[in-house]
Amino acid sequence: MQTKVAAYITCYQDQESANRCIQSIGSQSVQVKAIYIVDNSNEPLLLNNKNGLLLIHHHPDNIGIVEGMVKAIEWAIAEGYDFLWTFDQDSVPAQNCLEILIAIYNESTQQNNYKVGIVAPTPSDPRTGEIIEGAVFYSDRFQGIKHNSNVDFYECDSPITSGSLISLAAAQELPPPCIDLFIDGIDLDYGFRLRQKGFHNLISSKATMHHNYGNPIKVMFMNKYRYIQQYSALRHYYICRNHTYLETRFSQGYYRFTSLIQRLRYMLVNILWIILYDFDNKQLKIWACLLGSYHGLVGKLGKIWQSK
């Protein structure tokens, strides 16, 4: 029986990147049957539908990444798909990426009682050359897991959302992604909840994908070059809020206190980078970090901070 795969893309105000992502999905060695698109742009993007694969849903009110994913998962399950391959618009998978991911899923699930929730490629940012790591939850925080190129695949708690091949059989065994997160931390929450349900999330070292991760800038700090992310105030708010909310809630007992300390430390370091290296809307971005961290602690979620 042939595996039935649909893809999903969240699009927002970037027609060129969206079309590049669509082309790369349509050029896979294993073909997807449809590409479900949520276009959150103010005006509909002109998307290339020459293969007739696109199902475009325009939401100028911007429903965010998570609600779009929830709609796509519900649609794919109703249509009898086996997998949903999820993307941000700024990702370009290698031509054999999907083929490798499916092969790893099939190989892994042949083991007794080994259930797989997500299989993901190795993403790298072509602007920096750096691999974007999956995450593991250690007691009080999510931390990146070091890439292992010596094996065909390895486990993590949460691969990044873009490029993740989600088993829809697994998706039916837990609540959908949390809509109230809106745009950040979806991967951390959904991947970790799959792990709590007994599913394994895998990263393939052979399947690769280019992914533009944030807006990196190269800076000199303490006589050493490093990359830091330069975000809008909106992104600072949701990153601080959602990561604070998730990490303090996933932590148990004493680690809830240490998680709080870690989140405050992250907030202060982030504010330091803004003061030192960000020259646009400093005060607004600092306020976004403060307010987001506070809202995360008290559990105030939803679409709150909007772009001006």
Keywords for this structure?
single chain, 308 residues, alpha/beta, Spore Coat Polysaccharide Biosynthesis Protein SpsA, Chain A, 2 domains, 9-stranded mixed beta sheet, two-stranded antiparallel sheet, 8 helices, 24% strand, globular
Characterization of this structure:
A hairpin with a 2-residue loop joins strand 7 (135-138) and strand 8 (141-144). Helix 7 (255-277) runs antiparallel to helix 8. By secondary structure, this protein is of the alpha/beta class. The strands form three sheets. Strands 1, 2, 3, 4, 5, 6, 9, 10 and 11 form a nine-stranded mixed β-sheet that branches. The relative contact order is 0.13. The mean pLDDT is 95. It is globular. The protein folds into two domains: 5-211, Spore Coat Polysaccharide Biosynthesis Protein SpsA, Chain A, CATH 3.90.550.60; 216-298, no CATH class. It contains eight helices and 13 strands.
